[in-house]
Amino acid sequence: MKRFKPYLEVMPVVFIIIFVLIYGVFEALLQSLGYFPIIGLKEFTLRYYIEIISSKSFLDSLWYSLYISIVSSVIAVIIGVLVAKTLLVLMKQNNKGTDGVEWVYKLPIIIPHITVSLFAIIFLSDTGVFARILYGLGFTSGIKFFENILYSSNGVGIIIAYIWKESPYIMLTVLAVLKRIDEKYETTAINLGATPWYAFRKVTLPMLMPTILYTYIIIFAFSFGAYEIPFLLGSTVPKTLPIQAFIEYQNPMLNNRPYAMAINVIIIVISLLMVSLFSFIVNKLYDKE
Amino acid sequence: MIKSKLKEVIFIKDFKRFLLLMFIILSIVSIVIPILTMFVWTITNNYVWPNVFPNSFSMRGINYVFTNFPRILGTLKNSIIISIMTMILTILISLPCAKALAFSNFRGKRLIEILVMTPLIIPMVSVGMGLNIEFIKLGLTGTFTGVVIVCIIPCIPYAVSMLRTVYEIVGEKVFQQGTVLGATKMQIFFRLVIPMIMPGIISAAIMCYIISFSQYFLVYLIGSGKIITFTMDMFPFIEAGDRSIGSLYGLIFIGCTVVLLFVMEFILKKVYMKDLKDYKYI
Q1: Is B259 on the interface with A (CB under 8 A)?
Q2: Residue A62 belongs to what H/E stretch?
């Protein structure tokens, strides 16, 4: 009986994840393949996928989603890592702890994405704070410049909103790991003649890579499948994939549903592929050691 | 000459330090300023171009909240109830799971670890759409139960990993010692386990609360219009770009979260202060 104890302990979590998540994915898959008995579709077919993949609006949405997620996640990671390292360097020089200032970076965590969209509107819209500051400084084309930030097909507003929300999380995670990494390694490199920046790049950064890749994949997957921010700050075309999926989902013609589900399955598959790719990279990089 | 060279080096060092400091200050400012603007926007309305600062005082936002107070209070109540239920249930099921993952080795452990993390990877938007019909069949749509169930899912990875970390930090030996000294399972759990992992429980609980309070799409879909949460109420105003009311809602949101944080810490510390006081950390 004792042997079964761990299984019993994990059972509630496993059960609810299977009941909701796995089942939901399964249902989406079935419906995307054309199996939708409620309205009488009972044959399995790939035609929905074929039609979706060859439609231009889908491909535009796919590219748009990937572009936004990759760019925002990469920039957020870079900023997060740089801020963490800078903070640590400054604190070491002054022999203080980082606790006094960490709480600032925890603030964006309690702010919902919807409110972050509000911030984007306040600051980045064509009549927003930045546009007015530019105007006040004499750049009268302030409005014109910021017309292209929000609600535009280059997705810059969405990217900035994601960066604002995600980089503090990266910063806190990286900081926690950095504090645990023995600075012995970097100091040795510096003693052997490396500049501090070089030592960081070649010694500490590789040690951080697993954490960096792990947090990157989390924020990528989140932004890729998110609805609220792209909806509030996005353009009419193209739309990100989840928004496109929901639009198809809300179509009053129920036999349009498989199209929505096909998009959903593609979103899920791409997220899973990204994770597998990154796990593979991490394993490859660190198996050599 | 050596002195001046030295001064040069020190100056560059100071300049570098100054740059780094500016970088950090910039990051802090870029976080704090938007939050502060919310406070400003609750009491103004007109934002005449091209003023940088709003120059008129207006009670429009506050008036709106007062005239719609019953509805706002209702949605707030819904949100709080859902979030607290989600928080409690998630912690309840995550505690044993985290403990098993931290201390036991069993076949399929890797698979379970991956399964627990899947809500981080698989977007709930797609899952929700796939699940909706089944939930309708089960009668779970439009009910608090249904909404709480779907809100638990995105919280699980955070709760399990935070609790697991705390379990690993505390270590199994302490609990085994309790058994050796003759404590019953209940005693061990309530008087040993919980106080020692309390910081982890608090962090995980706050995370669960925030995640479920912020849910818009899931509640919108599964609640199917019958359950309106505060976040759902907030959404149209931000969609319309209404800065006053949007900011006011945002502040209420953050205020609720912070209040809950304090209440939780207070209650939990009060209950366990007695036990904690007798602790002598060796």
Answers
A1: no
A2: helix A56-94
The Cα–Cα gap between A129 and A121 comes to 9
Contact A27 B130 (CB under 8 A): yes
Residue B231's closest chain A neighbor by CA? A114
pLDDT in tens, chain A (289 residues): 677 788 888 888 889 999 888 898 998 888 888 888 777 777 788 888 888 888 888 898 899 999 999 999 999 999 999 998 888 888 777 776 666 788 888 889 889 999 999 999 888 887 778 877 877 777 776 667 777 777 777 888 899 999 999 999 999 999 888 888 777 887 888 888 878 788 888 888 888 888 898 899 999 999 998 998 999 888 777 888 999 999 989 888 888 888 889 999 999 999 999 888 888 887 787 765 4
Rounded-to-integer distance, Cα B233 and Cα B245, Å: 11
Which of A132, A142, A225 is closest, CB to CB, to B126?
Answer: A225
The type of residue at A254 is L
Contacts of B124 in chain A (CB under 8 A): 225
Does B51 touch chain A if contact means CB atoms closer than 8 Å?
Answer: yes
CA A191 to the chain's CA centroid: 38
ipTM of model: 0.86
- Please answer whether residues A63 and A153 qualify as being in contact, where contact means their C-beta atoms are separated by less than 8 angstroms: no
- What distance in Å separates the CA atoms of residue B227 and residue B73, rounded to the nearest whole number? 13
Contacts of A39 in chain B (CB under 8 A): none
Looking at chain B from residue 69 to 98, which residues have their Cβ under 8 Å from any Cβ of chain A? 92-94, 96-97
DSSP-based three-state secondary structure for B38: helix
Structure tokens that stand for A25 in this block: 């994915």
Give the 3-state secondary structure of residue A36: strand
Compare CB distances from A114 to B104, B231, B257 and report the shortest one's residue. B231
A101 to each of A84, A92, A166, B25, how far by Cα in Å?
Answer: 11, 14, 17, 10
Interface probe for B, chosen from A86, A110, A240 (most Cβ of B below 10 Å), is: A110
Residue A140 CA: distances (Å) to CA of A147, A169, B47: 13, 36, 18
d(CA B24, CA B32) in angstroms, rounded, equals: 12
pLDDT in tens, B182-229: 777 777 777 778 878 887 888 898 899 999 998 999 899 988 888 888
Burial class (CB in 10 A: 0-12, 13-18, 19+), B83: buried
Instruction: Say yes or no: A121 contacts chain B, CB-CB below 8 A.
Output: yes
Interface contact A224-B106, CB threshold 8 A: no
Strand, coil or helix: B128: helix
Q: What's CA B257's distance to the chain center, in Å?
A: 8
Best residue in B99, B122, B133, B203 to probe A by mutation, most A CBs within 10 Å?
A: B122
Give the separation between CA A117 and CA A113, rounded to whole angstroms: 6
Q: B267 vs chain A: nearest CA distance in angstroms?
A: 21
- Alpha-carbon span A115 to A148, nearest angstrom: 21
| B238 and A CB contact within 8 Å | yes
| Per-position DSSP letters for A243-277, written without gaps between them | HHHHHHHT-SSGGGHHHHHHHHHHHHHHHHHHHHH
